[in-house]
Amino acid sequence: MKSLTKAYRPISWPMLGAGGDTGSWRVHRPVVDVQKCTKCQFCWAYCPEAVIDRHEIIIDYRYCKGCGVCAVECPTGAISMEKEE
Amino acid sequence: MTTSIKQLPDTEQVLSGNGACGGCPATMALRIVGKALGPNAIMLLTPSCSVASMGMTPKLGYNWPGINITFATAGSSASGITHALEIMKEKGRLEGELPTVFSWVGDGGTYDIGFQALSAAAERNDNIIHFCYNNEAYSNTGVQRSGATPRGSFTTTTPTGKRQPKKNMALLMLEHNIPYVATATVAYPGDLYDKVVKAKNIPGMKYIEILAPCYLGWQFDMSDTVQMSRAAVRSGAWLLWEAENGKITFNNPTSLIINGKKAAEPVDEYVKKQGRFNRLLKGADSAERIAEIQGDIDREIAFMRERAKITI
Question: Most-buried pick from B28, B59, B83, B192 (CB within 10 A)?
Answer without folding.
Answer: B28
